[in-house]
Amino acid sequence: MVQMSESTSQEEPKPAQENGKEDKERNQEATEVKEPIKSSRSIPDSSALGTCSNVAGTAANKVKSQELNLEEQPKISTCSIKDSRISKNTVFRKPAKVIFNLDQTTQSSKLEQSWKKNLFERLQARAQAMQQKIIDKENLKKELEKKAEEKLPRDNLAKEWFNTENMTLNTRAYLLDKLLPTLVPGMEKMLMQVEKKKLLAEVDIPTKFDPINHLGEYLMRNNPNYIKDSGMSGYQRVMRNITEDLKIYVPNTTYNRVSKMKENIKQKREQRECMNKVKAKVANTWKQALQEQFNEWILDPKGMIPMIVIQNVLHEFFQNPDFQLACCQQLDIADSMEPRLNKMEFIEFISSHIAGFKSEMFEELLKHLCHGADEFREVIKTDMRRQMFAELFLHCDCGKVGFLDRQRTLALLETFYDQSSKVLRGLLRNPRQWPFVEFGEIDLPEFWGDMDNQKHIYEDFDKVLLEMNTLLSENHASKSQSKLLANPEDQHKHDKHRKSTLPQSPPEQQRGTTANQEPNRISTNEQEQDKESTGEQEPNKESIAKRGTYTGSTPEQASSRGLIIEQRPHNESITEQGVPPGIHTEPAAEQGLYRESVTAQGQQEESTTGQGSHRGSPEEQGPHRESVLEQGPHRGSIAEQESHREGSVAEQGAHRGSTAEQQPPIETIPEKQEDIDSTSQSRKGSILRESEKSREAISFEYTEISPQEERTQGQIYEEQLFMSPELQEKISVSSRKGHLSETEKKEVQKDKSCEPKSQKIEGKSWSGELLTCNWNTKYAKCEEEEQANLIYGNSRFTDLHSIIRNIQSYKEIKGRSVFNGVSFNLLQFVQLLETFVGEDAPLSVSEALTSFFKKGFVETKEEKMSGLEEARQNASQVRRGLLLNALFQKWDCDGSGFLDLNEVDELLYTYKEGMEKESMKKAKLHIQFPKPHPGHEVRLSSKQFQKYIELVVSELRGNEDQVLESVVEFLMNTLERSHVESLRNCARQKWLHQIQRAAETSGVSLEPVYAETFKALTQDAEAHGNKKISAHISLLEENLLLPDRGNVLLRNIACTLDDAPYVLNRVLYRDMKGISFTVVDEGKPVHVPQVQNHGNIFFWNHSRKKNDQNGSFLALPLQDAYMRIFGVLAVDTLRDPQKVNIFLPHEIKFYQGVANVFSTAYHYVHSREHILHIVITGISWLYNITSSITAITTYFIEPSPAKDSDYVLRNMMVTGHLGLTEVHRNPPIIFRKTCIFRDFLFKCTDSSEVVLASVCGENHIVVPLRERTGEALGVLDVNIGRSKMLLYREFKDLQKMTKVIQVACNEILGELSGEIKKNYILEIENVGEVQRAGILFFRVMLKELQQCLRLLTSMDFVSLLLYDYDPLAEPKSPDSQSQELEANIKLVQDILKGIILFFHPELELSSDLGNWDQCKLYVNQYLVENICDFDPTARKLKVNLKLIDEYIRDHSRIEVWKFGNTAIEYLYHWAHICSALMKLNKKINSAISPPLPSKTDSYVYAKCQGEAC
């Protein structure tokens, strides 16, 4: 520290006379600095402070006294330093903290940090004091110079020395710095002396005065190196400044480098200031744009927006992979709807998250915010509808039992659907079809063989869609022809293009759309030709590009439902005959019903605009979007709606002003609207309602149509629902009448574009309440929580209260509804009605449905009593379960997971002093106990214990509920547990729960389960056994490499960390030492108290000395639900330093409980893994026969990472349009609070029902995967793109896949839980568990098809044999009917031949195969029996699969569907499944690999290897 002060003081140049004083000052400062270090508690002298202040006070009187004070300034500073240092380094010692179980290294590190901190504080204080001393010194110098300048004015004559000539620059700078400051005053003194002695006037007078000597004497006396300068003249001061300025220009000097640095700093400062001004201007512009965008949102009554909504919008924007912002933007999304944002808070909140955005990114954000505002309107509308249905449920639930009859609800929906008009039925969904009707309610022949397109969920969907496609193709063909006539030069080019756009037949049309999932797509070239034909479009683009306008919307926004539903405050209505009273149907909502069906087929030119050559060009997108504004004064058109959206960007004024003056381009963008023409009038006319502005500026003419020429509005509107927007425009343009002049049109459109968005939805204001995030908390009813609260209030079960609280806290997945097929709870009822109404129907339809239900839903007195009794029984059952589960845990204080039956009976028989003993024994006659263990001990699990107690209670006299509570109270009071045992039981139950939780939150990975298992073992050993243990888990495997050493082996798959080098992945054979195989064979734990005295212990660590081989060893069997051994859990104390460390009985029981819970968690993970296999197989099968599905995402439900919060969804895998499944190794988690706009996934899991939803222009069919109890364990999100719905054929195939997957999942879950026995039907199922899960989908489908074939009659096959028409016998006719007949004959014959080859492979070499008359002989009564008994995976089976595929696979799925024969449909699917199973059987090990993820950041791909998969 002393060296630091010396080096600092040496930096200041000092005259020679000050050196001695400075040395003394430095020595004094050094001594004064050491004093506070030696004694930090010394008190500073008060006189020193007074001296310092007095000296500082007298320092400003005169110039000479100030110069003296300048010399003594170091003393003053030293004094102040001493005072400040003493006061700052005073140590106040606090009482030391007592730290338990802390390593010595941690304590030493904390001590080391304390003295380092003290040292740094001292150094910092000293450095600050030294810096302050230098600053004070410089300030004093400046003050002295200022006062001296006032006395001696500046002499500007010295400025003549400033010259930057390069030749003399160095010399001039040297002279000005070293010589001239002393020489010029010397010359001045010498000349003054000459003038004084009058030597110039008297030249001839001799004198002794020598000017040279006088000048030399002056220079020697005033040498600046030895003599302190007493003062500077005005000339010298100016010369000094000139010298400093001149030194700047001397190259390679310090002054020159410093000046350059200053110049650079100045330039950078100016640039920074300029950039800050630009940023401030941009920020101001952005804030203005956000301020205008705020008006796009629907606000609550206080004019605020929920913050969670804006956070969701930003979260979706940051997660967009196109922007790559997910890694740099993190949002802490709120958990409730309470935090709200006003306009200023809205601007500040968004501005804080977009600080580093570029202008292009901000424009994208504005588009996204506009789209989010439209989506939020839909969210509010959906929430209004759901609240309406929730109130309807509460109204219908008169008895407040919490559920309504399912069949009665469906019957009312069917009645409402039948009584509705055809237009309204186009909005609603058919309640007689799936998903309203469950698969179990549909007969197998109807499910697999029904090919009636009229039974679609949307009425006449396939028919109208086919007509629309035909009209669209004809329209484009005629349009292309007119272009060719107008431009003959492009004849050859158009002919080539026309070949690629010719309409295909429906089968080829559907098959040709697999790549892009959008059949009948209009090519970009054709659309560009259409755009070129509009003469005024390009000038409009140029004008808008010059003005710098920008369109604030995207093609996706134009197709979203937010642009179609409720974009204006006043909506039109259509009054139809047959519509139930109270229904108010709005054209905008009706148009939105099938708004996406055509877009998916590619008929909208607008979609190509966003994806073609104009994508990303605002100047080109702007006029294309804005041209809709001039399409005409149609009521409520999309042009009016888009004008509101596009006016929300920062350049809104220029945007609206420029677009309002454009000429209307012809056929630029398809309009999705209803035109008022002759074809849209009903027999009685329609009552059309317009807004006031439209009514003042527009006068429509109504034309009466004669009944002969008239079509019903239902037919016209039905076609328009499926019709492409472009086709609607062509039809409407042909019938449109010009009622307005161009000027009037511009004024109307300009007025409408300036109108703000309505704050009402269909005339209703938003109350500000949004139940999307907390729907479960308000309406969901949890019976367990209610019964637990009742038990808490009962003083009879005080000892069980804490246990019940722990049980409730461990149940982390709450709020899921159980689907039972009999009744609906509130969530299921609301979801069913929402699915029935759809998202595009106006709220008036929901209101009409609500009033219809209130009138029609009537329950009799008997039904009400029955419902109340059922609710009472349900509550009683839940209460029983809570009490008995808590009693079991109290009884099982060691956490073993089982109770001894003899111990239970011994305590039960003492109830009422043994008076009920005989009655209790009768209960054993009605229960099947598990098999006794090797020690003749019957152990009861928790479920078995509950069942046994309930049977015992049923044999006793009195009310069952009261008797059960008395028995539970008796057992609870009889069981004596100490406080230590209760605490130990609580801790162990928590550790056991952590193992199960690790399995549920692992993302289908066993690594967290292993970690939590070893953690529970070590924690219990340290807390309750005072031991240090080692543990490892070994699983049984089939010994394929060395079968001579035993059929099975034990492989160590997990162990504690210290034993990993010696134990992990090691193998134990039967011929080796060890007791693990004894445990496997006997099925009971083996405890070795002293391993050194046991001769059959195998030590994995061979380097351990025999003297160190002291300790205990415990091996426990790992058993599945069928009590089969699948592994061993081994625990030892070889690392424990204590000599006596045997395992106590309560420790052994707890380790048994750990083994039991680990087994449950292990099979839980594998059940999810097997379900993934089933889903992969099912999705592959579906993708092979359908082409309209964009993607399928599989989610699993997991407890939330945060405690006391909602469950989450984990994205396990995604199947793209190519059928390749991406299995995530680190599956991402989806929270409910991040899905305000995509809550359809949680709606599905909450209600356990199928959900149909539309988000961002894409339609989803969300199917739940249910547990055996009826709760959802996961969901399948089927994305069908922009198509409103699948064709009926594909819709039926989706149902088949869903049903088979659910049946296979139920079988897997039942087998792993022990509820059902494993059923091996095919030989391939014996290969392995993973392989069996991979083919289980095909096995279930095969068995269902065999059941369907058994139900066929002989006439079904006779009708097939009649297809023996020979096309060669009669002359060919070119008509399509004859060609269709030939194709059907070939289809029937090929499929039957392929089926025959499965059972008669010898026909391959026979000529009978080519003779149909001979082949018909094999279609007999034994064929169906052979099909139903056929095992395609049998080893002895030898067939020519390649030849069979040539017969079967030459015919497409569409061809079989169009044929419409049930027998052919069955046989076609059966043949494909058998072919797929045969191919999988040949490469079973490579075709099915376990998709078990591990904790890495990569992913794997999986796909079924068979062609039919």
What does this molecule look like?
It is a single chain. The chain is an alpha+beta fold and 1509 residues long. Helix content is 53%, strand content 7%. It is built from 59 helices and 22 strands. Strands 15, 16, 17, 18, 19, 20, 21 and 22 form an eight-stranded antiparallel beta sheet that branches. A hairpin with a 5-residue loop joins strand 16 and strand 17. Helix 5 packs antiparallel against helix 6 (104-151), helix 22 (537-547) packs across helix 27 and helix 53 (1376-1399) packs across helix 58 (1462-1482). The longest helix has 48 residues, at 104-151. The model is unreliable at 1-107, 488-754, 1367-1372 and 1492-1498 (pLDDT under 50).
How are the elements arranged and paired?
Layout (H helix, E strand, L loop, with lengths): L1 H8 L9 H20 L7 H12 L5 H9 L1 H16 L15 H48 L17 H10 L1 H17 L14 H11 L12 H14 L6 H41 L10 E2 H12 L21 E2 L1 H11 L5 H38 L7 E2 H14 L2 H6 L16 H6 L11 H26 L4 H10 L5 H6 L12 H10 L3 H11 L7 H5 L27 H5 L3 H7 L3 H7 L6 H9 L11 H9 L5 H8 L32 H6 L15 H10 L2 H11 L6 H13 L5 E2 L2 E2 L9 H5 L3 H10 L5 H13 L12 E2 L1 H12 L5 H14 L4 H31 L7 E2 H8 L8 H6 L16 E2 L1 H14 L4 H15 L4 H22 L6 H19 L4 E9 L9 E8 L4 H4 L3 E2 L7 H7 L3 E3 L24 E7 L5 E8 L12 H41 L5 E8 L9 E8 L5 E4 L4 E2 L9 H8 L3 E5 L2 E9 L5 E8 L8 H26 L15 H22 L3 H8 L14 H24 L12 H4 L5 H8 L12 H8 L4 H7 L2 H21 L1 H4 ...
Antiparallel strand pairs: 1-2, 3-6, 4-5, 7-8, 9-10, 9-14, 10-11, 12-13, 13-14, 15-16, 15-21, 16-17, 16-18, 17-22, 19-20, 20-21
Helix pairs in contact: 2-5, 3-5, 4-6, 5-6, 7-10, 8-9, 11-13, 11-14, 12-14, 14-37, 14-38, 22-27, 28-33, 35-36, 35-39, 36-39, 39-42, 39-43, 42-43, 44-45, 44-48, 45-48, 48-50, 48-51, 50-51, 51-55, 51-58, 53-56, 53-58, 56-58
